[in-house]
Design brief:
The chain is α/β, with parallel strands linked by helices. It has 28 helices and 27 strands.
Length: 733
């Protein structure tokens, strides 16, 4: 592919480096690449050894002239910054044939400023066929839809350990007001590191330098703070410095932070903008509340005092950079956008997932499947729609009302979580359905607006929530209904039941694909239309790997229930009787969210000696199961619970502990000798009997249980469903 980049510039800063790095990666991938603009000597040094042609472009007129000569030989023109967007519009005037134009947005703001803003914005966007943003934060704040493509940085040499680094805090950025270098100076002062022999080095220049020098003098830090001016070898300083401080709260991504990750340089950054997408989940000290220099100083001091932690943080950051922010990935994702423009297809698969639960630290079916799908296809983009915030309902429960969190990147992405392609969206339900008859339609419109803001062009829809049937009737998106519970069998009032019946009829009739998680659902829903059975599963290796005993697990024998404590499924009186039956010889422990259980019921549980731990992060769950003597399933037995395929069935079996369950689906039918399925009357005695045999817990069987599916297995099946869905046209209206 013949690619022509254009930027109106005679400088060499972050955007120019971005263009040169992308061009270098594209040339390595076999494309024919040329660049207009940027300081020629520096650009040449960046692409040396690669067949990238360079032309100057310091003025808009110069860029226009060069585009008019070079663009006819290109397949794609890729422009950067508003001035180049305007130049390409002018260059195309009078040309019958001009290549498609893609732009990259580097900053989290709309085009132009001042009196002529609207005119410049209209002129700049006139020729654009597609738009790329360098981060989810930028995509949220620019005008127009865009695809997020993260910049890629080549991996560097082996990194120096903390003990071999200088006692230097580095700031590397332009010295302009929006960069808030003044906050960085105050953070260094607040850290107290000057007294410990550390110095602050500031690389960069700009209009704020004199004011910053005066501040340093007034703080009495003249001998500990060095102004290095413009440096050509910032990476060299990063390779030897001890920490990087990044105080700008509005960075689109933060190229200096990304380069620090390459060089194993621990970063303390303002916890906003693109910094969150780079650093979340690596080390809690990496991000501090924006504009809070005292908090930044505390993080600097804590890291300075712990070289081992700095090394661990640096290793995690370097791993994240290699995994998510590498040039090859950037080149591939950018090429997807080019091909979408040239061939009219979506640049990458896009899923809008309407979930029954928020994406939080308590993982459920959706998170596990999506994490595996993103791992298998890094180009997959997901808009995960959480249940709406309901301020009036919160007030009715005497809780502080809050609005939905809106559109935002998934934070805390790690190698396990693989959240780079996932955006979250939480809308707000202003009024309940009984007052606002169009509440569901309003929520559907909010999701469509969020999808547009996220840059989704032709998404597929994945629904768990029957209430989201309005999405089917208001969008042409090909749709999948993934049924995890038979809500028609749940205990609901007549009006709610009638609404659920109507909603599910729409979903079963109009969705191109329907998946179910249990054999019961396969029978009942399969009578109405074809369905695909994809059961739940477990990360078998993670649950088999020995973990230390959690500190908050009571001493002595433990009978443990893992899962949501909800009156739809959890038998509170049975749990109370069981706790009393095991008496003082053991403790019944509940690990999971407590939902819609009355204060009186919870009080009865606690009076019976039940320890209610609440929800625990998904990564820590295996430790609780491994150190329980007996695992419990005190579920109600009814048509609703028969529809379930509890994830705990697979997690319990993976750890090889004895299980006592009421005779609910999958447990009553299992041939696993570790499972005792018994009615509610005999349940407490069965638990007490097993507890008498099991302390300390016996080692689990050496071999994993046969026939237990993994989430990776099930994601392959779901991927096949999604591939079929992608081949469908629009949902029938």
């Amino acid at each position: 592919m013949r690619v022509l980049h254009a930027i109106r510039s005679g400088a060499f800063a972050g955007v120019e480096r971005h263009v040169a790095g992308l061009a270098r990666a594209q040339a390595r991938a076999g494309h024919d690449v040329a660049i207009i603009g940027g300081r020629q000597q520096s650009m040449r040094a960046e692409v040396v050894g690669h067949a990238v042609r360079l032309w100057p472009g310091e003025t808009t007129l110069e860029v226009v002239r060069r585009l008019r000569r070079a663009a006819p030989g290109a397949d794609i023109v890729h422009v950067h910054m508003t001035a180049a967007e305007i130049a390409v519009t002018l260059a195309a005037v009078g040309r019958r044939h001009f290549p498609p134009v893609v732009t990259t947005r580097h900053f989290a703001r709309t085009r132009g400023s001042g009196v002529g803003k609207a005119l410049r914005a209209a002129l700049a966007s006139r020729r654009l066929s597609a738009q790329i943003s360098v981060s989810g934060y930028v995509a949220e704040h620019v005008d127009g839809a865009s695809v997020v493509v993260y910049p890629g940085i080549p991996s560097g040499p082996e990194i120096r350990p903390a003990r071999d680094r200088e006692a230097v805090v580095l700031i590397a950025q332009r010295l302009e007001a929006e960069k808030r270098t003044d906050l960085g100076v105050r953070a260094f002062a607040a850290s107290g590191l000057a007294r410990a022999g550390w110095s602050l080095q500031i690389a960069g220049d700009g209009s704020q330098r004199t004011a910053l020098e005066d501040m340093v003098s007034n703080l009495g830090l003249t001998s500990q703070v060095q102004f290095l001016g413009h440096l050509d070898d910032v990476p060299g300083r990063m390779a030897s410095a001890g920490m990087l401080l990044a105080p700008c709260a509005i960075e689109g991504l933060g190229l200096s932070v990304l380069e620090a990750m390459v060089h194993g340089l621990p970063v303390v950054a303002a916890g906003s903008g693109g910094h969150r997408e780079l650093l979340s989940g690596l080390d809690p000290l990496g991000l501090y509340p924006p504009t809070d220099p005292r908090a930044a100083g505390e993080s600097l001091a804590a890291l300075a005092a712990d070289p081992a932690r700095r090394d661990a943080y640096a290793a995690a950051a370097r791993s994240a950079q290699r995994e998510r922010f590498n040039p090859a990935a950037q080149s591939r994702a950018t090429e997807d956008v080019y091909r979408s423009v040239l061939h009219g297809s979506s640049p990458s698969p896009e899923l809008v997932v309407i979930s029954l639960e928020a994406w939080d630290e308590i993982w459920r079916r959706n998170q596990y499947l999506l994490a595996e799908l993103v791992r298998a296809d890094p180009g997959l983009r997901v808009l995960f729609v959480e249940p709406p915030a309901d301020p009036l309902f919160q007030l009715s429960r005497r809780r502080l009302p809050r609005w939905g969190a809106g559109l935002r990147p998934l934070q805390g992405a790690t190698d396990d979580q693989r959240g780079g392609g996932v955006l979250l969206f939480q809308p707000t339900k202003v009024l309940p359905r009984r007052i606002d008859r169009h509440a569901d339609q309003r929520l559907a419109k909010a999701v469509q607006r969020a999808s547009h803001r996220a840059g989704f062009r032709s998404p597929m829809l994945w629904l768990n929530d029957p209430a989201a049937s309005a999405m089917i009737t208001s969008t042409p998106w090909p749709s999948l209904y993934d049924i995890t519970d038979d809500w028609l069998a749940a205990d609901r009032d007549a009006a709610e039941h009638e609404r659920l019946v109507a909603s599910e009829q729409i979903l079963l009739a109009r969705c191109e694909e329907v998946t179910v998680c249990s054999a019961h659902l396969a029978r009942t829903k399969g009578e109405q239309r074809p369905v695909t059975l994809i059961t739940n599963a477990v990360d078998l290796d993670r649950y088999r790997r020995p973990q230390p005993r959690p500190d908050d697990l009571p001493a002595g024998p433990v009978a443990l229930y893992l899962g949501t404590v909800h009156p739809d499924r959890f038998d509170v009186p049975l749990a109370t009787r069981t706790a009393r039956a095991v008496g003082k010889s053991a403790t019944l422990v509940l690990v999971g969210p407590i939902v819609d259980i009355s204060a009186a019921e919870r009080s009865r549980l606690e009076q019976a000696g039940v320890v209610v731990l609440g929800g625990r992060p998904w990564r820590s769950v295996p430790a609780y199961l491994q150190h329980a003597d007996v695992l419990l399933v005190p579920h109600l037995v009814n048509e609703f619970t028969d529809s379930l395929d509890p994830i705990k069935f697979y997690e319990y079996r993976a750890v090889g502990r004895p299980i006592v369950a009421t005779p609910v689906a999958v447990f009553r039918d299992s041939e696993d000798p570790l499972i005792t399925a018994v009615d509610a009357h005999h349940f407490p005695q069965a638990v007490a009997r097993l507890l008498g045999r099991q302390h300390p817990p016996a080692d689990p069987p050496a071999d994993p249980p046969a026939g237990v599916p993994t989430w990776r297995d099930q994601a392959i099946l779901m991927g096949e469903v999604i591939a079929r869905l992608r081949r469908h046209g629009a949902t029938s209206q």
